[in-house]
Amino acid sequence: MSGPPLAWYLILSAVLFALGVAGFLFRKSIITIFMSIELMLNAVNLSFVAFSYQLKQVNGHVFAFFVMVVAAAEAAVGLAIIVTVFKNRETLNVDEVDSMKY
Amino acid sequence: MSQYYSTNEAFALTPALTLALFGCWILVFDFLFANSKQKRYFALVVVAGLIFAGVGLYRQQAFLATSGDSSIIAFSGALTIDRFALYFNWVFELATLIVALVSYNYLEIEGEHHGEYYALLLFAQCGMFFLAAGTDLVTLFIGLELMALCFYVMVGFLRGDKRSNEAAIKYLLLGAFSSGFLVYGFSIMYGLAGSTRLTDVAAAIAARPAWDPLVFLAMTTTAVGLLFKISAAPFHMWAPDAYEGAPTTITAYLSVASKAASFAFLLRIFLGPLAPARDAWEPLLAAVAILTMTIGNLAAISQTNIKRLLAYSSISHAGYMLLGLIAGNDTGIQGIAVYVMVYAFMNLGAFLVVIALRRKNIIGDDVDDMAGLMYRSPGYAVLMLIFLLSLAGIPPTAGFLGKYYIFLSLIETHHYLLAVIATLYVAVAIYYYFRIVKTMFVGELTEKAPLATSFGLRVALGITGVLTLAVGVYPEPVLRLAQNSFLR
Fold it and tell me: Is residue B488 part of a domain?
């Protein structure tokens, strides 16, 4: 097989996923947090496609398409909810969206 | 027992197709009932959809009973209709029915009566069907997302309400985050097995050593995703906020149906592909279960909002159900099945009483809003008492049955320490449930007029109340159903 070995793709995927997790945990803007989630899902797609290429199968490609569909649906619903949050509060900083407390 | 390879895929799909069709019907014909008062007829459409889906489920059940097959396998293994799937689908049917019955009046009071709400209920149940019946990573993932996306919208359904928006955004962000973990675990499982069928994944994992790093990575990431969905600690943070902010009908639906579906999913994964790695996940899950019961029960003590209190109580119930999986013998798995069913109607019942307290200008989700309920509407107070006794697990109510089997399985498998801890937390639970009871029975009466409730709510309360008592007194039918249904 030509090209870099499978492990490189998997390491890249793991690094991207970890970046997504870090972004989710440390960023303050809801939009950036949302982008971090998309990054996680795309890291997953990369690992699906890499495995699929390695195994000479189409299953992984199909799964990657499903993940994309779900990511798109999540973005549609998510942005709609973000718009209503902004309308009600005029802020998208997660630290200020805290009307419910213990 | 043999397995029946279906040549008629539509037969296996009937319930899901029916639910989706009725949902689409509501979306298309939303304009027929233009004003808010008329929208209540959509609740009838939902009930009709549930009846047709129920007929589909019944026919599948009858087919399995007469042919003697253990399951109907459709789409070359992507979907398996077995007794396990059917059992959980009956729980979803019950939950959706109850929620549809109480929704029309509640949405009227909230002033957000839209047809989409009813369509989303049906679509969510369609997703749950695939979660309980899916035996392929793709099917399970799509089922999960179909259910979750509907819930994100329903939790934020009160557009003008700050708390509802906030609940929706928190649930959405954490839900999508956990789905990311889950699907990352799935990608590694796919890489290990070269197939997305659960049976192939199980074979691939069984061929590797128990502490294989890749298996461990797949197991932990998948477990994180699953534990988020069942709101087990330390991944429970979304639950109290989502439960408090959501419309109360959706809180009830979320706490029962979504949790039951997530447990079906969890059992499919942990007793399927991850079963060979049991040595690796059993101690982890035991730690999670203890932490879940601790956080759920201790945080519930200081809550003043009933919805939030029930949210923490529902977290602790997830901990009890996990114990059945840790015990892992037949009694334990049956115990989870019984617990899920019993939990469905007692928890729905408790939320129904909270819904009954909601009137124009009165939110009614504070513990103090229950004050003196006994002297205002004794019927509701007594029903609430029954539901709370059942949630605490006191005989002769149904809740005792669920806890009994879980604890029995722990003793049978010599998990004595876990059994002792779980029993101690039951005592804590009795304390905070009885705080509500005390408020109802000796609290200062603030309002004299008895509760005015809708016909649907009274029917729903009747169903849940009768089931909670009847199953506690005469448990054989539910036990027989659960015994036939467990996954092996």
Answer: no
Residue B8 has pLDDT above 80, yes or no: no
Helix (DSSP H) and strand (DSSP E) numbers for chain B: 20, 3
Q: Is residue A95 part of a domain?
A: no
The CATH number linked to A58 is 1.10.287.3510
> How many domains in chain A?
1
How much is the ipTM here?
0.95
Alpha-carbon span B79 to B270, nearest angstrom: 17
Q: Using the beta-carbon criterion (under 8 Å), do B169 and A81 form an inter-chain contact?
A: yes
**A85: nearest CA partner in chain B:** B165
Cα-flanking dihedrals φ and ψ of residue B122, to 5°? -70, -40
Domain residues for the domain of A81 are 27-89
Report how many domains make up chain B. Answer: 1
Tell me if the pTM is above 0.90.
yes
Any B CB within 8 A of A102 CB: yes
Question: Chain A residues with CB inside 8 Å of B166's CB?
Answer: 85, 97-100
H helix intervals, B29-114: 41-67, 83-110
Q: Which residues of A touch B183 (CB under 8 A)?
A: 41, 44, 67
In this model, does residue B341 exceed pLDDT 70?
yes
Structure confidence by residue, pLDDT tens digits, B143-201: 999 999 999 999 999 998 889 999 999 999 999 999 999 999 999 999 999 999 999 99
pLDDT range class, residue B2, cuts 50, 70, 90: low
* Beta-carbon contacts of residue B420 (< 8 Å; ≥ 6 apart): none
User: Is residue A84 a part of any domain in this protein?
Assistant: yes
Residue A50 lies in a domain: yes
